[in-house]
Amino acid sequence: MSALDGKILVTGGAGFIGSALIWALNERGHKDIIVTDFLGSDEKWRNLTPLKFSDYVEAGTFRSTLAGNPKAYGKFSAVFHLGACSATTERNASYLVDNNFAVTKELASWSLAQGSRFIYASSAATYGDGNQGMDDKNPNIESFRPLNMYGYSKQMFDVYAKHHGWLDQIVGLKYFNIFGPNEDHKADMRSVVHKAFQQIKTTSCAQLFKSYHPDYKDGEQKRDFLYVKDAIAMTLHFAEKGLGKSGLYNIGSGEANTWLSLTNAIFVALDKKPQINFIDMPEILKEKYQYFTQADTSKLKSSGYTHSATPLVDSVKDYVQNYLAKDKRLGA
């Protein structure tokens, strides 16, 4: 049994993780997919060009149409809600509350009413500085203190879903540091792999932020980096073998690597000698910077997910050599 046997909705489908999900669905033979997003004026529309789907609807139109007629688009077997503003530097709190919290409430309520499998993007940003741990088995999710409004907008829905009993029926995925093809349009929110590749191409040198924490030397801040192909495999697990599971799950490699390890892997993929320059961190980030993230993935494994994450060196090599160097997108 699979939640992918009928019509599928992917919100944020032109974005980084959303378009990668559609690519993976296409690889599995699924094309009856409705895609929503705000295409705007950036280049993320290019992510859609190699993909197969049945219809595209602007997210604002989809939302207003559903508000007037919940049955307007028919019944979906699975709803992947990946659409959100993911900018950790976004200061417009009212916008984030509407776009990331209110819309998610509306879609979750609608999905539950029609019996759709609802899988949504939460974020590791909900954990804040990690003082409360990064354990998706912790029932006291109200104790987490996100460091930015983006993280808080995600936290708001996690808590709301818990208080309304929805987490017993839906799946929230706390994505850690995801990188890979189809992130070109994300500007400052692109991964360091993408940014450093461009820097190395033009200057032969990569830039990393200096550390402002006494426990971490420059470049030795640690993050849980996960290749987008692995993130998507984990996501689809909850519509396939993990169909009976619900609640919040960490989506990460389970391993913390330094920025230096990540950047050195880029130079290895390019067959170049590492040259790294440490630069000042913008003031807006200094007080809201996560110096260590590592996903506890034991809950994911207990749900029946058996695959290991691709080793960092191998995932960086695939991304750099097969996508960035060729200016290629998933499915192209």
Give the helix/strand layout.
Blueprint lengths: L7 E4 L4 H12 L5 E5 L17 E4 H10 L9 E4 L11 H22 L2 E5 L27 H15 L7 E5 L1 E3 L12 H12 L2 E4 L12 E2 L1 E3 H10 L9 E5 L5 E2 H11 L6 E4 L3 H4 L11 H5 L9 H13 L8
Parallel strand pairs: 1-2, 1-4, 2-3, 4-5, 5-6, 6-11, 7-10, 8-13
Antiparallel strand pairs: 9-12
The main pleated sheet reads as: 7 strands, parallel
The oligomeric state is single chain
Q: Average pLDDT, to the nearest integer? A: 96
Strand content: 15-25%
In CATH, the architecture of one domain is 3-Layer(aba) Sandwich
Note the run of SSEs as H and E. Answer: EHEEHEHEHEEHEEEHEEHEHHH
What does this entry look like structurally?
It is a single chain. With 332 residues, this protein is α/β, with parallel strands linked by helices. The protein has a domain at 8-180 and 224-254 and 293-310: Rossmann fold. It is built from ten helices and 13 strands. The chain has helices spanning 16-27, 59-68, 93-114, 149-163, 192-203, 228-237, 259-269, 283-286, 298-302, 312-324; strands at residues 8-11, 33-37, 55-58, 78-81, 117-121, 171-175, 177-179, 206-209, 222-223, 225-227, 247-251, 257-258, 276-279. The strands form four sheets. It has a seven-stranded parallel beta sheet with strand order 3-2-1-4-5-6-11, with helices on both faces. It starts with 7 loop residues before the first strand and ends in an 8-residue tail after the last helix.
